[in-house]
Design goal:
204 residues; Methane Monooxygenase Hydroxylase, Chain G, domain 1; 7 helices
Length: 204
């Protein structure tokens, strides 16, 4: 078989790979929700292990991207979407690791912020699943996910202001870092929504 025949015959389902990657990210965020309820090392480690699985899935996707000639939409968009989805889970992992290092326990404020991230990641996942099925629904989910970033920003400002009223400077500095990670996580959720919208606008 010639090189051109091989390139054009190699069928890779990038929609499926993106869905699998998105599934793992949602699973990781769900694990973070559980960790914020229990604060146990076991549940924290679950987030970290899922992040490692997601990294392997992203590597698989990138490897296929590097060796495949035809993609369902622009390869730069596939790469960017996978990166944004991956970064959501990266910040979840960092949150767990730093809470353990700083010996911080879950709070009601953190639970509320994580709930926003979970709802947004769920919408991103639904959008990814409908990229090749229901483009209108996919766009609606992406836009809803983006709006949740504003909700997170409101929580971030509110809880940071409350945190700064406390007397324990060490606690303030530690918890501020956790708030920042969750705010950055929501930024990546917003970015994933942007990229999905960009893909859909070009494809509609």
């Amino acid at each position: 078989m010639g090189i051109l025949s091989w390139l054009f015959s190699k069928g890779v389902d990038f929609y499926k790979l993106l869905q699998e990657h998105s599934d793992l990210t949602l699973k990781g965020v769900q694990a973070l929700v559980t960790f914020m309820k229990t604060g146990t090392e076991e549940d924290g480690n679950n987030v970290i292990q899922i992040e490692k699985l997601a990294d392997r899935k992203r590597k698989e996707l990138i490897d296929e991207l590097d060796s495949t000639f035809i993609t369902p939409f622009e390869r730069e968009d596939i790469y960017a979407l996978s990166s944004a989805i991956d970064n959501i889970l990266d910040y979840c992992e960092t949150t767990v690791k730093e809470m353990e290092i700083y010996e911080l326990k879950p709070t009601e404020e953190l639970k509320e912020m994580i709930d926003v991230i979970y709802k947004g990641t769920e919408l991103i996942n639904k959008s990814v699943y409908n990229l090749d099925k229901d483009k209108k629904l996919s766009m609606e989910c992406a836009l809803k996910a983006k709006k949740l970033e504003n909700e997170m920003e409101s929580y971030y400002r509110k809880y940071l202001a409350e945190l700064l009223k406390k007397d324990d400077i060490k606690y303030i500095l530690k918890m501020r870092e956790i708030y920042r990670h969750l705010s950055n996580c929501a930024d990546k959720m917003d970015l994933a929504g942007d990229i999905l919208g960009h893909i859909l606008v070009k494809d509609i």
